[in-house]
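Bumping with the actual sequence this time:
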Amino acid sequence: MDLVAIANSPVGHLVPISGMDPWRGELYEHQAFVPAALPRDLGELRLSDETWSAVVGAAGALAKLDQAGRQVPNPELVRRPTLRREAQSTSALEGTYAAFTDVLEADLDVRVTRSAEVREVLNYVKAAEIAFNWIEDRPLTLGLLGELQGLLVRDTAGELSDAGGVRDRQVVVGQQRGPITEARFIPPPPGNLLDEGVQAWLSWVNSTSEMPEVVRAALAHYQFETLHPFSDGNGRLGRLIVVLQLMQYGVLHYPLLIVSPWFETRRRDYQDQLLAVSETGDFDPWVRFFAEGLRAQAEETVRRIVALLDYQEELRTMIRDQNIRGVRAKLMEDIIGQPIVAVTWAQHHYGVSYQTANEAVARLVRDGILKEMTGRSYARLFMADRVLTVVED
């Protein structure tokens, strides 16, 4: 952290820290950054015309996404693959890489073991499902955030003794195993300053405001990542909170927005923009960057939804024209939400015999809707590559 650049920050201050570096086994003395409270009045922000244009564009794109979500007969079918795509991408931003097909396969329970990477991605899926159900009629709470963080790090290297609660140790951003003095950024030390900061952040997020929702989400995300309230999982949890905020504020009624892919491809800019706010106190570039990301991802998500529903309608036409019945028809109806299937999964999911499920899957292979993807003669998996192409692109 550049102490000279951040020493005169108008949106926070430095405090001394000291202790034993856990990676190097050396005593250290350094400084950490404590952010000031977020502005509550829009008049405290000086946003450029270009930034306001980006904010308006993001709000419009989010409105179109919400409208598209309301028109989906079964939003769960669309949400399932998009949530897993977000889980994969948000984990990749933190350095955990798992193939999208591996994530989808894991849901089928056809593998005896799962890789550490896949387990971590699926942890996000479980946490997100809990969060989406919670936010329908309740505000964000520290208890919810702790529960979500505990789920995110469960059975991973990040499951430390303080998992599920505000951290009791000093953390750094970047240069995890190097000297603390060389870390890219050092959040507040554990204790009263951090606890008070988190409570103030929650109060700010849950309060009423005339500030546009996109701006509020941008500011809240900066503050959460700067506080870094947990020992691990702050990035993933922070990006999940973006969607939760938009749902809480009534911008989105269904959690169909994928946030992370745009930021993943701009990882360095994303990190630089967050750090620049702390150094300069200028929220304008960050709000513009954030709004551009929301707009792009909302527009992309709408495109994916339309493409998935178009394909589903194509399959429904085929069902009607060919008078298809039974498990084969059900698989075709559900394929946009279940683009990877196993015969045993179909057997149990639809409550039919193995032979019936096998015949239905085999017929969809002959129809070109499914394609065998393992090359095995046992425990085979089949994918709908047209659906995967839409979701992964």
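The tokens above came from a reply further down the thread. Strands lie at 12-21, 26-35, 340-341, 371-372, 382-383.
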